[in-house]
Design goal:
flat
Length: 106
């Protein structure tokens, strides 16, 4: 299927609409994020910049998220050393001895 001028036009129009939508979102980001939050859609990082403006409920939710992340990282840190097997000193990994290669003479 060859690419026609209609394909190119559709791509350019779609790209323009997406850029315009992103521009308008950035211009009204606080209002849009507030509306989405009221609809039950949580956007990560949307309100993380200004903790003093958060309500008590939002602060408690953020605190619980941080506590969960800390617990996950502590658990992962405890599991890392247990996964590695300690090697004994003086023991070679391979017990085979290498034989010199025979050199063919012509």
């Amino acid at each position: 299927m060859p690419v026609t001028s209609q394909h190119v036009t559709g791509f350019v129009v779609g790209l323009g609409v997406a850029a315009a939508g992103f521009y308008f979102y950035k211009m009204n980001q606080k209002q849009v994020d507030t509306w989405l939050e009221s609809q039950g859609i949580h956007i990560p990082g949307a309100s993380a910049s200004d903790y003093s403006a958060m309500t008590l409920e939002e602060l408690v939710r953020q605190k619980e998220t941080f506590q969960d992340l800390i617990a996950e990282r502590e658990y992962a840190a405890e599991q890392k050393p247990a996964a590695k097997k300690p090697r004994r000193k003086g023991v070679r990994a391979s017990t085979k001895t290498r034989q010199p290669k025979a050199v063919a003479t012509a």
